[in-house]
Structures are given as structure tokens and as C-alpha cells.
Design brief:
This protein is of the alpha/beta class. The chain is 41% helix and 14% strand. The protein has 24 helices and 21 strands. The strands form 5 sheets. Strands 10-11-9-12-13-15-14 form a 7-stranded parallel β-sheet, with helices on both faces. A 5-stranded parallel β-sheet has the order 1-2-3-7-6, with helices on both faces. Strands 17-19-18-20-21 form a 5-stranded mixed β-sheet, covered by helices on one side. α19 links the parallel β14 and β15. α1 (5-26) crosses α2 (32-47).
Amino acid sequence: MDTSKDLQQRAINTIRFLSADAIQKANSGHPGLPMGAAAMAYALWARHLRHNPQDPAWGNRDRFVLSGGHGSMLLYSLLHLTGYPLTLEDIQQFRQWESKTPGHPEYWVTPGVETSTGPLGQGFANAVGMAIGQQHLAARFNRPGHTIFDYFTYAIVTDGDLMEGITSEAASLAGHLQLGKLIFLYDDNNISIDGSTQLAFTENVPERFAAYGWQVLQVADGNDVDAVDAALRAAQAESQRPSIICVKTVIGFGMPKRQGTAKAHGEPPGDEELNATKQALGWPLEPRFLIPGEVLEHFRSAVEQGAAHQAAWQAMLTAYQAAYPQEHAELQRILAGELPAGWEQGLPEFPADAKGMATRVSSGKVINAIAGQLPDLLGGSADLHPSTKTFIDSAPDFQPSTPQGRSIHYGIREHAMGGIVNGLSVTPGIIPFGATFLVFSDYMRPSMRLSALSPYPSIWVFTHDSVGVGEDGPTHQPVEHLAALRAIPNLRVIRPADANEVREAWIAAIRDRKNPTTLIFSRQDLPTLDRRRGGEFAAASGLHKGAYVLAQWGKKAKPDIILMASGSEVALIVEAGRKLAKDGVTVRLVSFPSWELFAAQSKSYREKVLPPEVKARLSVEAGVAQGWQQWASAHVSLERFGASAPGEEAMHKLGFSVANVLKRARALLPKTKKR
């Protein structure tokens, strides 16, 4: 195969102009990054990246993340040229309706895209998560003479990525964890949309990353393929530190009027500038989307090389099977995306208890029971393990010396935790969760939104779920957060009422390996309801339908009133319902842990739980009522911020008392029932 400098240069220019032609045809996009970063991307993809275009998901492939997702045409060009199932027609449909080449890379839309990178910094944090995943899988499966997982995670990151706070958090943690298989190419072109980075970004990036504990390498000319190649080799040789290669590039390289300027960043070049660029770089003006045959042959060697990489790995797995049959069987399970048989068996069943326990406490018990059955579970907390009760007791911390550990200490880094959990969630054999207080979900919202959009099967654990938090006051008391999370499409929000609903909530979250789930738990103790067969209340398995009839008291088949609640407020409607029943009211209690699960049920089931003819419906939840209007006609809610006071007093003063629920319920009843 001819690998002359001339062929190499034509290959790099093919990347540039395939990208530029697509952007110009769409009349939309960001040409600056693919024009400027094409050479360093070529060095990585042509000389180092272990991947198989015919099987984009094989287990020991290197991961590549384009964190500057606005430069998506760089990635699409590389995918098409190296032989992924992305056609030239797909390239020509860049940014068009239902195309495989959306404006920013989207996971599960485009073959070979490892993660959705839109908001800057998210891909950076996702890549850190992928590197953590590699380190954990290596500790779990590698054995002497059998290196099953040794892949690298590469990313191209930009000035914009490094300005975002999430990357500072993620980089700090990556340095602490000594993620030696993590390598970033920094597209250092000193330009952002507003203009020169001198307007707002004048820090010393190499010194900053050195302080984080990274190996810092520098390449003075981003078009020097050999220099980039040498830096990549030096990065691969460093096993104790992640590496960042600071590559000086020229944004929009080759564009006579725009290179090195902000106009190259986010505007299509226009036909005149595009043609002038082709002339400047010695490229034919026509046809558009030109791929010289010898260049395509050069790139498509990745297919044969990738198949060879994967075949060598498969041969290694055969030897591994003979030496370690049990571990091999477990490996096959995770590569197939399956859960262990019987993982749900032995989870705790909680006896009725009037005092009960906080759902964060019962969640901790369930987590540890699941962890004993499900080695895939890997959790972490933003410096709140003692409060969120999310530590996995049967394994050590996840640290550089104990990568087999299953509890990650994220530190006070909620932003990074969100992005890292998403990166972990696309790693086979890892079911990750991240935990903090519900009020701090605001810090994680971009990552949660991407988990729902992509979708990733991330699990989000939030405790301290209401003004029942108490003395910490309104800064720590969530009010609007449940409504805000429910507003995210495809995100399942589950707020269990007692310990047994907590068990079912965790089962629901783990069963769903295609969508994210948010679990919401209380700080304060909640009664554990009597759910024994023949007991007063329905089985907690009703949680899987989102809402279910918890109990009905009274003489009539159809209730006079329906009281519905989620989480801690279910205990309130139970006590209020008892009093209404004593007054001769037929009252139905509905536990309503998840709107999303309930909305997914059949119309007949929904109407069975909430008969349309019953108009007196009262929702009770310690948060804003926004959204409850679809289920209830009146609400006990919180349309203000909380206050600093003991939790029980704060709840009572703000209207979450049996007396107030009764008052609001009786106002909905006919006059004959208002006693």
C-alpha cells in the first residue's frame, strides 16, 4: 500500500473537503474544526485507532469521542472513509431530516458514534467515564497472560470544551484516578465564536493539566502528522497518568479569507471561499464530494485491519475460556447485554412498621443486596455517600490501587459525575448510578437531558427530596425539581412511598437497559405499609405500572374521592383516607410513584385506577403542582420556597399535614359528604 507523503496529504485533504462540501450543501455547520484538525485526526485514525468498521461495538475496540461535537463532519467523514455503514448519500444529507448525519453526533443514530456530544464539555466527561470503565473491566476480567480489556479512550477536545466547568471537574478526577488509558488531542486554535480566545481564555492550559496530574505533550504544528504520531506514542507509553496533547492548529486551515478567524468557526464557507480553498490546497473544484480512488483504498484498509484486531481478540477469548471458564461465561453475558439469571432473588422484603425508615436508608439496603447478585452495579456519589446511603459495602472504593472497587468518590463535582456516569453507561458490563441531593439535580441537568435524548441507561439517585430536609433551609429544599425532571422527555422519574416500593423502583431501573431512570428518596423516616397477602395495602409491585390502587375504604364500588400522592406524602393520604372513611366517605388511595410509567399503560388500566366519572381527585406532593393537572382536579402542593426549621415542622407549616389534606379533600366532596 502506497503510504507516501503525497497520498497522506491527499487523504487529509479528502477529510477536509468531504466535510466542507457537506457543510456547504447543507448551508449550515462548522467547517473550522474539520479543516484545522484533519491532520491530527488522520494521524490517530490511520496509525493508531483499533476499531472495526464492520463491527463498531466489539468489546476491546478503542473509543473515540469528538467532544467538540459542532465539528461533527470531521467524524462523519472519518466514519465513511474508513468503511462504517455510513454512505456518501448519508454524508450529502448532513443536517437533514432523519439523516444519519445530524448536526451534532448522536449516539445510536450514527454507527461508530460512541456518545452524543452537543453541549461542550460533555464528551470530555463521557470519555473520562469510558476510561474509568476500561480500568474497572480490566481489573474484573484481565488475568496473567490474558489481557482482555486494554483499549484506549481518545478524544479531540477544543478551547470551548476546556472553558466549560464540567471539564475542570472531570480532568481533576481523571488525574486523581490515574487513568493512563485516556488520551486527549487538544485542538488549540485560539478561536471561539466571539473571536480570539484572548477575550476570555488566557490561562496556561498545559500548566493547568499538569497540576491536575496529567502528562502534557505539545505539538507545535497541527499539520505535522509525524509529530502528532510521536506524541500519541508517548501518551500510550504513560500508564499512570492521563495524557493531553496540546496541538497548535489553524481553524479553517486553507481558507484564504477565513482561516484563523471566528468566521471559520460556525459559518458555511460559501461557494466562492470553498473554491478558493480548494485552489489554495491544490484540490479539484469539481466534483463536489470527491474521494480519489487511491485515497478510499488507503482509508478502507481499516476494514481489513479492524477485522484482524477483532479476530486476534477472539482468539484470545478462546484461550481465556479454556483457562478461566467461569470468567469467560460472565464475559459473554455482559457482551450480550444480559443480566445474570435470578439477580432479583433475595432482595429484601420489608415488614410493616409504623415508624419505618427513610427511603434513602431502604435504598441503601436494596443497593447492597443487588450488588451481591449483580457484579455490574457500579455506583458513586458527589461526596455524599453517608447521606445518600449509596456505598457498596462488599467491595473497596474505586481508586487507582483498587480499580475493582465499586463505589466511586466523585468529590463535590456533580457536573462531571453526570457526564462520567453517561460514559460508564455505554460500557458493557457496567450499570452505573450517580447520587446526590435532589436540589443539586440542577447541576446535573445537561447530563441527565443527554441521557434521555441518547438514550443511555444511566441511573440517577437523588435523596433529601422535599422540604422534609428541614433545618438546612430553602437552599437545600427542592420545590420545583420533580416537575423539572418530569419535563425531560424519555426520563423516567420514580418517587417510592415506602421501603418495598424502593425495592421495586430499583428493579425497574435495572431492568431497563435502554432508558435512564431517576430514583427519588426521602431523608425522613416513612412508615412501611402492611403489604402482606390479605393485608391492608396492595403489593408494591404495582409501582411498575406507575400508579396503582393502594387501598379503597368504604361501602361503594366507585369512590367518592381519589387521593393520590408520591413518596413521603403517601403516608399523609393514608391517614387522611382513614378519617374520611370513618365519616362514611368511600375513598380510594392511589400511590403514584411515576407519571411516565403510568402514562405508558393502556387506557383501560389508567381508567381503572382513575375512573373518569370520579371528578373529586386530590393530588398531594411536596413540590409545585405543575403537571398534576392531567391527573387531579385539586392539589396540595408547594408554590413557594421552603424555610429553615425541623423537617416535621416545616412540612406541617407549609400545608403537608393530615388536617390540611382533609380540609382540601372535603372541599371537593358533595355537601352531604363534607362532614
